[in-house]
Structure formats: C-alpha cells, structure tokens
Amino acid sequence: MSDAIVRMENIEKHFGNIVALSGVSFDVRPGECHCLLGDNGAGKSTFIKTMSGVHKPTKGRMIVSGKEVVFDSPREAMDAGIATVYQDLAMIPLMSVTRNFWMGREPTKGWGPFKQLDMKKAEQVTMSEMKRMGINLREADQAVGTLSGGERQTVAISRAVYFGAKVLILDEPTSALGVRQTASVLATIDRVRKDGIAVVFITHNVRHAMAVGDRFTVLNRGKTYGTSTADKITASELQDLMAGGQEMVELEGSLGGTV
Amino acid sequence: MTVETADKDERLKESSFVSQLLKRPELGAIAGVVAVTVFFLFTANPVMFSLSGVLNFLTPAAQLGILALGAALLMVGGEFDLSVGSMVAFTGLVFGVALTVFQLPLLLAIAMTFAVAGLFGLVNAEIVLRTGLPSFIVTLAFLFILRGLSLVGLKWATNGSTQLRGIRESVENDWLAPVFSGRAFTGLFEWMAGNGWIEAFSNGKPKVDGIPVEILWFVGLTLILTWVLLRTPAGNWIFAAGGDANSAKNSGVPVRRVKMALFVLTACCAALVAILTVLDAGSTDARRGFQKEFEAIIAAVIGGCLLTGGYGSAIGAFFGSIIFGMVLIGLTYTQIDQDWYQVFLGGMLLIAVLFNNIIRKRVTGER
Question: Which residues form a coiled coil (chain B) (predicted)?
C-alpha cells in the first residue's frame, strides 16, 4: 500500500544480547485503526517505543509520509505528527481538565513581562473538544481526578489530536477499564479514525480489537505473523496466533472456550 | 444522544455556588481569618482593630508572610525547604558584613545578599534534583549548616560576638534605604491626619505616620505570585511539576527548571526578609529567623497547600500569615496568657490539615 502514513520495514531491536524485535514490518494508513496484538513480552512495548522515537531500531527502515526518517527523541516523533498515549496518560488528577489539556503548551496573550495565560481561549477550546468527543464537562475547571478512567483516556486522546497528531498510538487504553468505560474509549477511537487520523491500537484483548480494528497484526516473541484485515480473520484465530498456536487450543479446550 | 443531554443537566445541578467556593484552596485560610477576627472582637481590647493596632499585627505577619509565600509556591511545586529560617540568619549576616565590614553601598549589599541566597537555593535544588532524595532531608541538612555558618561568620566578623551592629549608621542617607526600611506614604498620612480622617496627636502629627514597608512588599509579592500561579504558563508548570513530575515532563513541562527557580525564589524570599528585618533592627544576630521555616510551612498549609504538592495558593499563604500575626499580637490585647500562642497555632495547623484533606478528596472525587 502506498498511502501508508507510517511504514516500519523489517525493524530489529537488540538490547545487548537480547533480541526484542527480529524483523517486524507494520504500516498504518490515515483513517484506519490498526490493532497490534500480542501477549505480555511479545515485544509490543518495544515496538511502539521504536515508533514513537524512544528507541532507535538496530536494523530496519522507518518511513513517515513517504520519507525515510530516524527519530532521535520522542519530541521529533511528535513533531512529525506521531503522538503516543501511554497508560499513565500524562495527566495530573489535582489539576483541571483545561490545565491538563494545555499542560506544556499553554496559550498566551499579551507581551513581554505581562504575557499571561489566555484562560478564555483555553477553556473554550477544551470544552468544545471534549464535547466533540462526547464528554460533557460540568465546567472547564473540573479536576481530572473527578473523571472516570474512560473519560481521562478520552481527554488524553483528544489532547493529542488537537495538538496535531496524524498518527495516534494508544498503549493498552482499555486494559484497566470496566465494560462501559471500554465502550466509550472504543467509541472515541472510532470517532478519531473517522477524522482521518491513523490509529495504532495496542491491546491483548481480542474482543476489543475486533470491535474497532480494520487490520490486525499479531506479535509473538519479537516476530509478526503477518497482517490481516477484519473480514479475513476471526477472534479465535487471533487468540491462537497471540498464544503461539498449539498450547492455546489445548488450554481453551479445558476451559470450555471461555478465554 | 438524549441520554447524554439528560446526563449533562443532571450534572449541572450538582455544582452549586457553595461547592464552587469549596474548591478554592484558600477558603480555609479566609475562614480562619474570619474566625480569629471574631474571637478577638469579643476578647481583645478594641484598640487591636484601630489603624495602629492593625499595622501592629500586620508587620510580623508580613515578615513571616514573605517566607510563607516562597514556601507555598515551592510546596505547590512538590518540594520543601526547611532551611529558610537559617537562610534568614545567614543572608542577614552576609548583608550585615557587606555593609559594615566591606563598607559596600546598600544597592551592592542587597545584590550580594540575593546572589548568595540564590546560590544556596541552586545548591539545594541541584542536590535534590540530581539525587532524587526528598527535599525534606536535604534542606534539613542546610537548616543546620546555615545556622552554624551564621554563628561562625558572626564571630569572625565581630571578633567573637554573636551580634553585628552598626548597620543603621552605614545606610544613613542611602537613596535606596526608604525602599527597604521605615514607613511609606508618610505624606499621605500627614495629609489625612490634617483632614481629621485618622487619629492625630494634639500637635497635628498623625499617630500612625505611615505603612511599614514590609507590609507593602508582602502585599505586592502576594499579588505578583498569585498572578504567576494562576495566570501564566509558569504557574501551570508549577502545579504540574508538583502534581506529577513524570507526567509533566512527558507533556513538555521543564520540570527541572521550574523546581530550580522555586528553590531560588524561596531562598530569595528569605534574603528579602533578612534585609527588611536587619535594616529595621539595625543589627543582626545568630538567632534571626529561628524556627521560621516551620511557621512558614504552617502558614502555607493553613493557606491550603497540600504536603504532597500540586495544590495550594499564594493568597492562602497570605491569609495564613495574617492569622499568625493576629494571634501573636492579638493575645497581648487580651487577658489571655501569651503562652497560649503555640497551643493556638498547633490547633490551627491540625484543623487546617484535616480540612485540606477533605477538600482534596472533594476536588479529586476520591471517596
């Protein structure tokens, strides 16, 4: 596919004598949700950290918007439009939604020593962005601590989108959430994707992946088992791939297919 | 969609004016000022609330308050400085030596005092930030180091005495002295006395001939720091650095620089108090600023600062310090024994932390 916004080709990453990634290829297009699945230790974290500029690949090429790039820092990846929402969300519970939303990128007005926060603009933008994502804030100075886990996730996502993310990497956004919260985060992912943003959704929950994913890539022991589209694969096939095939089939048999 | 609109309306009702007010960190301190005022209105001689009485308790409040403002911002930024009291003694010594031993003009002496304070602030910050040790313990070390250095330095400067005198004489006729000592607006007060608006002696001179400059410094600093905290990006960074340094860093907040600036600010507040009080007394000694670090932190806590950082206000520390001044001076206007002062303050601190705890839970929605 030529219209991929980010393309990772044969990425290898070694930490000393440990091979964390051995030749992973992955790409994501604008307006799609590409799910990256894998069990713990499969290399998901290493892979997204490579994509977001935290790690440099040992081997392999990374192509963003048609140009080969090497990121020296997460900041460079962010400048190229690749934003990552980690599990800790980079949110501060005691601060208001508005102050969290603008943290580190505060809008100002005035000049010289009288330069000050443009609170009116900050609050208006925050309220309208939240509304667009389906969260009705009571007031713009509501503390993030009063929001539910799903709402916090949505604030973090909309913040990344507002500040120009073209590629959004979500690191297990649903792993700590209840059923309703998960549904709301999946709805947010769907909304963001429809805005033409490329979403990389990292998860180990096949059902969450199947709910919003367009394509699926399974990582296992630092390798991919290829990429499949939603209409060509079933949940149980994904589950098997994640577990590395054989053993999972046996385990599932003994558990009565409930995993 | 209808569900969501209904949801919104239902939430809007919850947020009443009272709950809005309860969210302000300084609420406790304002309530405290009201309570203490009411208490003294009933128990104290009414002279306490005359113009001279008010200035009487605002002067110690200002001297403590300047320290408390620095302590409050540093606490919001997630750190402590236990060395501010000793810093007052040490910078007082530096200031005194600059004037009497080196015979420097006031401007240079002040510059030197702030430079030394800033340097120690940076040393505190560097150690805390590089090692990741709690600032509580690092600055506790400097509490003793600076107190000890003040004694050693005083004896060196005075050939064995623990008091350095002759400061007032050395700044006489210095053009800068009125900014840091004496009283301001004397002309205005004379004019007001002339019109009979304020109390005057029989010769027409006002009984209160001006506002002590430290009160003006105190009010000015409160306004500036409140503005910085609430209305500038730097203020947002202070809250963020104290709330969660890691998240703040990941969002592009220069956490290191923010914390360094706060340590320097706190040290410079101590230096300002040293300059103001040394000029006022005309001498400096090794006990200057003794235990002020605790009073400053207590005033900040009464003002709504959380010990865990990320929450608090400068205006709260302002009112917290006024409570201190009122209790300290107010007791002398009553029949109550002065010795109750510390009991009173301990009690206030306890009420304040309990209150802050409830407020924090309200703000974050914890149960």
Answer: none
Contact B237 A88 (CB under 8 A): no
Site from A103, A132, A133 to mutate, B interface, most B CB atoms within 10 angstroms = A103
Would you say residue A194 lies in a domain? yes
Res A162: pLDDT = 92
Residues of A with CB under 8 A from a CB of B: 75, 86, 88-95, 99, 102-106, 108, 115-117, 119, 134, 136, 138-139, 141, 143, 145-147
Which CATH number is A69's domain given? 3.40.50.300
Q: Which residue ranges form the domains of chain B, and what is each CATH number?
A: 28-364 (1.10.3470)
Interface contact flag, A117 B236, Cβ < 8 Å: yes
Measured between beta carbons, the chain B residues lying within 8 angstroms of A104 are: 237, 240, 248, 251-253
- How is residue A45 written in tokens? 């974290």
Total domains present in chain A:
1
Give the end-to-end CA distance of chain B in Å, rounded to a whole number: 30
User: Measured between alpha carbons, how far is B241 from A221 in angstroms, rounded to an integer?
Assistant: 38
Instruction: Name the closest residue on chain B to residue A134, using Cα atoms.
Output: B4
With CA atoms as reference, the chain B residue closest to A106 would be B233
CA atoms of A25 and B162, how far apart (whole Å):
75
Sequential DSSP letters for B187-248: HHHHHHHHTTSS-B-TTS-BSS--EEHHHHHHHHHHHHHHHHHHHSHHHHHHHHHHH-HHHH
Q: Distance, in angstroms, between B78 CA and closest chain A CA?
A: 13
Domain of residue A60, residue span:
6-94+143-255
- ipTM confidence score: 0.84
Q: Give chain A's residues under pLDDT 70.
A: 1-2, 244-259
A86 and B250 within 8 Å at the Cβ level: the answer is yes
The CA distance from B284 to B288, in Å, is 7
Residue A89 placed within a domain: yes
Q: Do B247 and A115 touch (CB under 8 A)?
A: no
CA atoms within 13 A on the CB side of B229: 28
Question: Averaged in consecutive runs of 10 residues, what is the pLDDT profile of chain B (367 residues)?
Answer: 40 56 80 92 92 93 97 96 96 95 94 97 97 95 96 91 88 89 88 84 83 96 96 95 90 92 98 96 91 93 91 94 93 89 88 84 66
